[in-house]
Design brief:
The structure is a homodimer of 191-residue chains. The first copy, chain A, has 191 residues and is mainly alpha-helical. The first copy, chain A, folds into two domains: 55 residues, Homeodomain-like (Arc Repressor Mutant, subunit A); 127 residues, Orthogonal Bundle (Tetracycline Repressor, domain 2), CATH 1.10.357. In chain A, 71% of the residues lie in helices and 0% in strands. The interface between A and B is medium-sized, with 31 and 31 residues. Chain A binds a DNA duplex (19 and 19 nucleotides) through α1 and α3. Chains A, B: Pfam families: TetR_C_43, TetR_N. Chains A, B: It comes from Streptosporangium saharense. Chains A, B: InterPro entries: Homeodomain-like_sf, HTH-type_TetR-like_transc_reg, HTH_TetR, Tet_transcr_reg_TetR-rel_C_sf, TetR_SbtR-like_C. Chains A, B: Keywords: DNA-binding, Transcription, Transcription regulation.
DNA sequence: ACCTGAACACCGTTCAAGT
DNA sequence: ACCTGAACACCGTTCAAGT
């Protein structure tokens, strides 16, 4: 769904940009639950202006993350052509982990947007899932991954591990990802 | 660490009990982030009384969940003697899922308590992990589960799946648990 | 020893008034 | 068309005053 961008008044555009910058800084520092009042303050803008541009916290997050999550889709398509499909999937999975852990709390926000078409992040989640779907299908055709896993399963599992990683040291997060991804290999199906 | 219970004044004890009941109701209805003021109101008690008995939200949660989580440990020991160690582990895992999903938000609270000795829920998490450890070791000796998984890994993974399940339908949660548990079987080790 | 609730601090969100 | 900030609602937490 392409949104047509009407031109913004110069001051509005400047405020919009400032809000994005301030939001990124706040999210990076305090996680996705950072105070929106502080974001507005840092941007040098009234709180009402923040709400005018971004009616919800998710809308703000979407704007801040848009390029990053779109890049994940691009990366999926690049990897699709490369060498071993199994390896490509693993590589993409690590990219996904990295993107989902840029802000503390992001995994939770994404997870709650995944099946909620009303969320401003739903579209972004969809694109991620589609990218994963393609790589997954390719790995399944190559017999590298059990064939009853879906892109949604994969994305949710990685998200869940990323979330768990917020409460562990990095080593543990890495271990958990390995356990899960090893476990998705073909031949592991029991039930 | 056994805490010696000094006898409470009759009114204090009554308030304590009322708070537990009200808290359970509130957590069940609104999740672990339920308003503590409302808990106090429902219990017919001043907010200060709630804080006197339970200095933190976690302390209140611990009191409400104590028996339930202790039961999980008991269940682990019962299952330890029963038939197939692999099946016993799976069975216990399902119990764990059920316990961790009684309140929305509980998985998150437990996860953040898991490696934090300062949390009032740390002890409860420890007991759960120990129960899992025993069943896991037994399943590993039987060659049913890959031998590089720890009880902490298992508990964290199940917790992560339970958390994911809060944002999915029950079928999906069940699927994810199956994928993870199948994946822990012996012979899946790659890296 | 225990309880109460006012007081303080903080935040999200809306909207009337301004430019 | 856009911005501002006061106003409202709500919550967590502490603590002086009471019994």
């Amino acid at each position: 769904m392409e949104t047509v961008q009407r031109p913004m008044r110069a001051d509005a555009r400047r405020n919009y940009e400032r809000l994005l910058t301030a939001a990124h800084a706040a999210f990076a520092e305090q996680g996705t639950e950072a105070s929106l009042e502080e974001v507005a303050r840092t941007a040098g803008v009234g709180i009402g202006t923040l709400y005018r541009h971004f009616p919800t916290r998710r809308a703000l997050l979407e704007a801040v993350l848009h390029d990053s999550l779109a890049g994940l889709d691009t990366r999926a398509r690049e990897l699709l052509g490369s060498g071993s499909p199994g390896e490509a999937l693993l590589e993409w999975t690590r990219h996904l982990m990295a993107h989902v852990t840029v802000y503390r709390g992001l995994a939770a926000t994404l997870m709650s947007s995944f099946d909620d078409p009303a969320s401003e992040l739903y579209g972004a989640c969809e694109r991620v899932r589609v990218g994963g779907d393609a790589l997954l299908a390719s790995a399944q055709r190559a017999g590298a991954v059990r064939d009853d896993v879906t892109g949604a399963d994969l994305t949710k599992l990685v998200n869940a591990v990323a979330w768990a990683g917020e409460h562990c040291d990095d080593d543990t997060a890495e271990r958990l990802l390995t356990l899960v991804m090893d476990g998705l290999r073909a031949g592991n199906r029991r039930s």
